[in-house]
Amino acid sequence: MKTIAITSNTSWYLYNFRKNTILALLKEGYRVIAIAPEDDFSEKLRALGCAFVHVSMDQGGTNPFKDFRTIVSFISMYAKHRPDVILNFTPKNNIYSTLASSLFSIPCINNIAGLGFLFINEGISSKIARWLYKLSQVRVKKIFFQNEDDRTLFIEHNLAPVCLTDRLPGSGVDLLRFNVLPKSNDGVVRFLLIARMLYEKGIREYVAAAKIIKNKYPNSEFLLLGFLDVNNPSAVTTEVMEGWVAEGSVNYIGVSDCVEAEIAKVDCVVLPSFYREGVPKTLLEAGAMGKPIITTNSVGCRDVVDDGVNGFLCKVRDENDLAEKLEKIVLMTHQERIAMGMKSREKIEREFDERIVIQKYMDAIKAC
Q1: Are 173 and 352 in contact (CB under 8 A)?
Q2: Is residue 244 one of the residues assigned to a domain?
Q3: Which of 1, 31, 139, 175 has its CA 20 to 30 A from that of 122?
């Protein structure tokens, strides 16, 4: 029986984004080891039927000593467990797990789900990260990219040989779990932003645009859902969020293990991100549930929206343009919003079915 290791920077990510991949691997007869920092979702991973191994990792930090400890942890794990193939997700895993596995000639399949800060700035951390990608990615068996922009950028910067690269339709979406649930016509037009609360996700622009629309259309409501005060230099703090909520334009509703229940309550999902996304999972889930989408005309985000068909694309870092797109949704009838949302569902079914992604992984594993 072959052993497949699947790694990420949180157990939460593996359970929420890769659960069906794990179940498909188990169904195929593979032994699966989930490797991530221990959190509230680690036990849920064990309940799926896979083994779980904790790895110490500072997700968003740049402390070289902590990162060195992470590499040592990966080396120790692979020396002990010797998986046949490793699937890596999230940036540090793509780098450090790959470097550790190369010592044992274990093939890795990496997933580049957006480049985040890597090409936004030219700081020392970004330069080091690019060097580490260049050092590590030549050692993999396959690198999957979620959008063509990132794939091209990697190749142009010589971070990976073109022969190792391939394209996935984002991380895909479970079309059975995320099904069409139109919101009732209760006279309130609700918008929802789902993301880690990072400024690069367009949080500030969303709040500013919400103020504009709320003043003009009191029957509108703007919600925020996602992790707050995360370990990231761009994180929105609890104090800042409380200030925004106190102003009365937005409501922060925390986090949820049942995000589909929150999506079902709204008319439109918004993500004005200027972070280098892969293809945002939350937009795929919203589209699968038949919601119109407003997002930026930027890498990864624009892949989910046919402008004017299943939503609207707005300019990056432009709260006024975002407000104009929000107003378009407010001025639609309830039935027009539902019809636009159904175009989202059709697009997701056509282009982003999770089964496409899982099959790509199965084929790549068999080729190792």
Answers
A1: yes
A2: yes
A3: 139
Say if residue 99 is in the same domain as residue 166: yes
- Number of structural domains found in the chain: 2
Q: Is residue 182 part of a domain?
A: no
The per-residue pLDDT for range 73-104, each reduced to its tens digit, is 999 999 999 999 999 999 999 999 999 999 99
User: Are 306 and 292 members of one domain?
Assistant: yes
Would the CA dihedral through 216, 226, 310, 167 be positive or negative? positive
Beta strands in 207-307 (DSSP E): 220-225, 251-252, 268-271, 276-277, 293-296
For residues 38 and 74, state if they share a domain: yes
- Tell me: do 312 and 223 sit in the same domain: yes
Residues 55 and 200 in one domain: no
- The identity of residue 65, as a single letter, is F
C-alpha distances (whole Å) from 350 to each of 19, 154, 172, 304, 346 are 22, 27, 11, 11, 6
Asked if 198 and 160 sit in the same domain, the reply is no
Helix H or strand E segment including 142: strand 142-145
Q: In 3-state terms, what secondary structure has residue 94?
A: helix
- Give which of 183, 254, 252, 188 is closest to 217, Cα–Cα: 188
DSSP 103: T
Residue 292 lies in a domain: yes
Q: In 10 A of CB 186, how many CB atoms?
A: 11
Instruction: Give the structural domain span for 157.
Output: 3-172+353-367
pTM: 0.89
Q: Domain with 57 in it: what CATH number?
A: 3.40.50.2000
Give yes or no for a contact between 350 and 172, defined as CB atoms under 8 angstroms apart.
no
Which is it for the CA torsion 17, 178, 147, 203, positive or negative? negative
Strand partners, 5: 33, 86
State the Cα–Cα distance between residues 239 and 349, nearest whole angstrom: 40
| 18 and 160 within one domain | yes
pLDDT in tens, 254-290: 999 899 999 999 999 999 999 888 899 999 999 999 9
pLDDT band, very low/low/confident/very high, at 177 (cuts 50, 70, 90): very high
DSSP labels, 185-217 = --S-EEEEEES--BGGGTHHHHHHHHHHHHHH-
